[in-house]
């Protein structure tokens, strides 16, 4: 089920909300939690019911391992061996469903063989609920969390606002909220604020992201030739599509969870305002960055053993980040790009030389924009085609009406075939790109807006206008980009 669907907004969410608080009002706390679990499993299984056994078996296995790790002593294995077993099992599950065909393709390429692909259907959210449960096992091993109730643990894993695309949450920051008696009653401010945040996220998705997707898809998937300006329009369109799509999901997750008095972690904090790559990763997909830091980078040694080991750990961490996002060399290369960029930033920081603020932002944003090309491209050749178009001066094409006054530019390879010489993309793409820059750079993000939220007529009008525009823009069902990861 999609957040940006009439079924979710007008049927699933209201029914789940009403039944949950009716059960709590009648002090049927166990049944209210069980209801959230059933609703979440329905939400997940609505896509394809064959996914359900996988997530159910996964959470049962991890709950059992977590129970053992929470004990002071176990007889048949050491705790470290049990933790290794649990993590290995989770990685094996993820590896089989997500990477088996990728390994087969590369095996065939390297050994010139013809092993048939398994063609496995990737279960939704497997990357997210796998990382979330690995974090739970590690926290249980460290005696930082404990869960005795299988229903509560299942709610922790499957809670529908954050199940499909995160954020990646810790048990200790979620379940105390479900167990708190004061959160069992309807809070009208949370309802108003939750709907406000949800409407912002819905607007980002159906009005902004889905509009940018038209131009991004045309450039990446349809047109085989792109002029200089078309290539930049394509890359910037995807850069804004990805941001508004994923941050829109995060807003809708925060908003829908808040209806149930549950506060889930913030996942975005204006990442395109970052002035260096380290700042970007403090702002983009923040819970993934936290996981990578706490469960990969630091266990590898972090920065405790000097320069070379630190840089090695950074690179390994970001290669894993790339692999986590997708089974393809373009994702791995994207991870390498960000790892190398962070290493270079740390080396540059040693010099104490500082750029002007706008120059730092310009370099950072354009690096991110170019790196997204490899993240988006289906094949390596597609990424190279886009990047070549962005940086080749011999494929500049401008309006034919300018040829009379600027004919001398032809000597430098400029063509007068129109700005959109190779695509059917409409000229308003540039207006939308300007709007994208204005929104991400000059406006407050949704979190900042909610910090000063007031229940007055101005916010009521703003909420109604945003929600009306968003709901009336739901013309087709479009999945969120991160559902593929």
Describe what this molecule looks like in 3D.
This protein is an all-alpha fold and 485 residues long. It folds into two domains: 6-181, no CATH class; 190-467, no CATH class. Helix content is 67%, strand content 0%. The protein has 20 helices and no strands. The chain has helices at 6-25, 29-45, 52-70, 79-111, 126-141, 150-158, 160-163, 171-179, 188-222, 228-259, 277-283, 286-297, 307-325, 329-350, 357-376, 380-391, 403-406, 429-442, 446-451, 457-472. Helix 10 packs across helix 18 and helix 13 (307-325) runs antiparallel to helix 14. The two termini are 17 Å apart. 39% of the residues are buried. The model has no long low-confidence stretch (mean pLDDT 88).
Quick overview of this protein structure:
This protein has 485 residues and is mainly alpha-helical.
Blueprint (SSEs and pairs):
Elements: H1 6-25, H2 29-45, H3 52-70, H4 79-111, H5 126-141, H6 150-158, H7 160-163, H8 171-179, H9 188-222, H10 228-259, H11 277-283, H12 286-297, H13 307-325, H14 329-350, H15 357-376, H16 380-391, H17 403-406, H18 429-442, H19 446-451, H20 457-472
Helix pairs in contact: 1-2, 2-6, 3-4, 3-5, 3-6, 4-5, 6-8, 9-10, 9-20, 10-15, 10-16, 10-18, 12-13, 13-14, 14-15, 15-16
Which labels suit this protein?
485 residues, mainly alpha, single chain
E-strand count: 0
Q: Mean pLDDT across all residues, rounded?
A: 88
What is the number of helices? 20
The outline comes out as globular
The structure class reads mainly alpha
- Ends distance: 17 Å
Taking all Cα atoms into account, the compactness measure Rg is 24 Å
Low-confidence stretches: none
Sheet with most strands:
none
> What is the H/E order?
HHHHHHHHHHHHHHHHHHHH
């Amino acid at each position: 089920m999609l957040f940006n669907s009439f079924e979710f907004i007008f049927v699933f969410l209201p029914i789940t909300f009403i039944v949950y608080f009716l059960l709590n009002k009648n002090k049927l706390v166990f049944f209210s939690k069980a209801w959230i679990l059933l609703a979440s499993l329905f939400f997940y299984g609505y896509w394809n019911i064959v996914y359900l056994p996988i997530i159910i078996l996964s959470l049962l296995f991890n709950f059992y391992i977590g129970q053992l790790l929470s004990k002071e002593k176990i007889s048949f294995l050491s705790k470290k061996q049990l933790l290794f077993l649990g993590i290995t099992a989770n990685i094996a599950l993820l590896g089989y469903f997500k990477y088996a065909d990728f390994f087969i393709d590369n095996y065939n390429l390297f050994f010139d063989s013809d092993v048939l692909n398994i063609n496995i259907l990737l279960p939704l959210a497997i990357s997210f609920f796998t990382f979330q449960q690995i974090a739970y096992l590690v926290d249980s091993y460290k005696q930082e969390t404990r869960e005795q109730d299988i229903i509560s643990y299942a709610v922790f894993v499957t809670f529908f606002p954050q199940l499909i695309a995160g954020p990646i949450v810790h048990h200790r920051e979620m379940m105390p909220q479900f167990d708190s008696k004061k959160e069992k009653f309807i809070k009208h401010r949370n309802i108003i604020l939750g709907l406000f945040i949800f409407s912002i996220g819905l607007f980002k998705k159906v009005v902004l992201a889905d509009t940018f997707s038209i131009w991004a898809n045309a450039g990446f998937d349809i047109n085989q030739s792109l002029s200089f300006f078309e290539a930049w329009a394509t890359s910037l369109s995807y850069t804004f599509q990805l941001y508004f799509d994923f941050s829109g999901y995060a807003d809708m997750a925060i908003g829908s969870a808040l209806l149930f008095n549950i506060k889930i972690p913030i996942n975005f904090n204006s990442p395109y305002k970052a002035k260096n790559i380290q700042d970007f990763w403090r702002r983009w997909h923040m819970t993934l960055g936290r996981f990578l830091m706490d469960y990969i980078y630091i266990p590898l040694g972090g920065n405790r053993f000097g320069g070379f080991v630190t840089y090695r750990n950074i690179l390994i961490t970001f290669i894993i980040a790339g692999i986590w996002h997708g089974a393809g060399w373009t994702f791995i290369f994207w991870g390498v790009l960000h790892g190398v960029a962070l290493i270079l930033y740390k080396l540059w920081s040693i010099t104490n030389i500082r750029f002007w603020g706008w120059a730092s932002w310009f370099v950072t944003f354009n690096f991110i924009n170019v790196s997204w090309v490899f993240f988006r491209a289906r094949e390596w050749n597609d990424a190279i085609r886009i990047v070549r178009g962005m940086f080749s001066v011999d494929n500049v094409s401008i309006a034919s009406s300018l040829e009379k006054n600027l004919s001398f530019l032809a000597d430098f390879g400029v063509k007068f075939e129109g700005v959109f010489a190779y695509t059917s993309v409409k000229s308003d793409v540039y207006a939308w790109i300007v709007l994208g820059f204005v929104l991400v750079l000059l406006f407050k993000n949704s979190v900042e807006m909610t910090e000063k939220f007031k229940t007055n007529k101005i916010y009521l009008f703003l909420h109604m206008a945003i929600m009306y525009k968003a709901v009336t823009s739901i013309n087709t069902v479009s999945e969120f980009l991160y559902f593929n990861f």
